[in-house]
Amino acid sequence: MDNKKNEMDIEKTEHVIDNGSPNSKHLIHCLTIIGQIEGHYVLGETNKTTKYEHIIPALVAVEQDRSVEGLIIILNTVGGDVEAGLAIAELISGMKTPTVSIVVGGGHSIGVPLAVSAKKSFIVPSASMTIHPVRMNGTVLGVPQTLSYFDKMQDRIVGFVTKNSNISEDELRRLMMNTQELVLDVGSVVDGEKAVEIGLIDSLGSLGDAMECLYEMIENTPRRYD
Question: How does pLDDT run across 174-215, given as a tens digit for each residue?
């Protein structure tokens, strides 16, 4: 009997580590997206990375676990693999689980679609977001097919961001193609207040504000799979 009780206590402890405190108002899962988004190529050992092959199963687990009532996504990322980041963003946007994101530090490059993928997005005042066109490192063939590929990828990103936020397509493309702000690149950097002003992020706020919003969302959402 004691062994069985100990096993149950261990399982409960592991569940709490993954999903939060047993004394919380609602059981939520915290997902962190930090450093560089790693895609099909493994980055160096010195790079802090978020691996998409780890994130995708975690999202599936959260969506199918009836005990998890909400998901909070905390972002501090420089960007990374475009297709991997967009794939994660698409999965988050399609979840029935209540989701809230908060940008702390930075939500740059492909971090922009990730930030807006949640049902409600927050950003702290000190955070910033870099918006720029699609680019690629390494050897790039200077042929029309390559330029067409870039254009189509950029259209996918613009379409996703405008669909999941309140920024207009014209404003987003203007910020992407700005040549007056970045010395060695095309694009724009916006701080937390500006990101909310242009409709890219829903609200300026802290972790407490994001949690409060998620709790309210959970309480106003019918339970999944009942």
Answer: 999 998 887 677 899 999 999 999 999 999 999 999 999 999
Point out the residues that are catalytic: 109, 132
Q: In angstroms, what CA-CA distances link 111 with 1, 38, 130, 139?
A: 49, 12, 9, 24
**Contacts for 185 with CB less than 8 Å, ≥ 6 apart:** 132
Handedness of CA 4, 6, 9, 13 (dihedral sign): negative
| Strand ranges (E), 39-171 | 49-51, 70-80, 99-107, 120-123, 128-131
pTM for this entry:
0.83
Across the strands, what pairs with 35?
Answer: 77
What is the C-alpha separation between 208 and 71, in angstroms, rounded?
Answer: 14
DSSP state of 222: P
